[in-house]
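Hey L., structure's done. Input below.
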Amino acid sequence: MVKDIHNYAENQLNDFLEYLAIPSVSAENKGIKEASDWLVKKFEQLGAKKSEKWEKKGQNPFVYAEFEGKSSKTVLFYNHYDVQPAQPLNEWQTEPFKPTFVDGKLVARGASDDKGELMARLVMVKWFQENGGLPVNLKFFVEGEEEIGSLHVDEAVKEHAEELEADACIWEGGGKNSVNRFEVISGMKGIVSFDIEAVTADVDMHSSLACFAPNAAWRLVQGLATLKDKNGRVTVEGFYDDVDELTSVEKAAVEQMDFDEEKVKRTFGLKREFITDKPAYAFVNEPTMTINGLTSGYEGEGVKTVLPKYAKAKLDCRLVPKQNPEKIVRLVEAHLRKNGFADLKVTFNLGENAFRSDSSHAFVQLAMTTAKKVYGDDQVKYVPNAAGGGPIECFGNVLKLPIVLVGVHNAASGAHAPNEHILVSDFVQGVEYLIELLQKF
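Output:
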């Protein structure tokens, strides 16, 4: 039976490649209609009793589908159909929106994040429809703004809470870690994104005037330098106040996590040591503050001796449960004022709350036991939450659902990077896992 499922999944993969070929880049407002139309049609072809778009002006449409199963149990799937821009194009070895098989890999923008994972779920649906029917009711919630902050998910979930009622939720984003073990994850960190700007004059000036005129770039970096100490600890007063200790079960899970420090360093070509001696714990329960980018003055080729009037930095913080994105930005503003940088302007961009399911919940436990059956007892790890963020909190706290993150990518899949891919072997094994999990549920 397992061999039959694997052969089926691999053979079906070609029928879904056109989904990867749609350049649905939300940041550039491209391909959104085409991708959402494709999904509505595909759900209909697979036998959905309802397949529709939830649309509002100024929003990318949500795609919602329902399938009827043979029991009263209902599973809700979350995915997104938008992808990151493909740039830098010169670093791709194949065309980013021309799905290509290379040495057992399926290479395309979105193959890992997140179209490939939804494709596995669609293949799973098709297999059940051709082999006696779905064992449980299924609902799919697929958004088109995840890569630009999932700005309208909370609103949609609250508005359609009755339609989204379920017994459990299977999220996107899981897969195999750096030592090729399958991870069952039951939460995500939150995030807040904000800008900090410095303005020191009305016009850029000749750099010779730096003997008396203030420089926006220096002003900004001096303010930024107050936000962290030399060991990487955030120095903003109150930043860690809402961080709870992990439970004993969660601590045990962290201690059992795979974290091969040397392999991680090689994978990313790190040039300096980690900023913590507890990277696995930090991955799960340590909030962060990151400078994403800096802009000021002249950044082109050659020389331009300018004294910049303006400088801007983009930052994000990855947050843990109970940390509030808006509160974090207020704390940053207060910190800058207290340290003599009241002139720096802080602008909130977006925020998402963290959520972590109860590790003892029956569905989380079922996801684990099923994974051990499919992948092997010693090839599965439980992770309390992912280091990345997403609009997960409203599904957990509004819909009151246990949530697990399981998927088909691996640690080297290159999400958001050139040559993004998944392994075909991971794809077919992921389909088997979903089939087994739904049957047991």
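DSSP finds 13 helices and 21 strands in the chain. The longest strand covers residues 190-199.

-- N.
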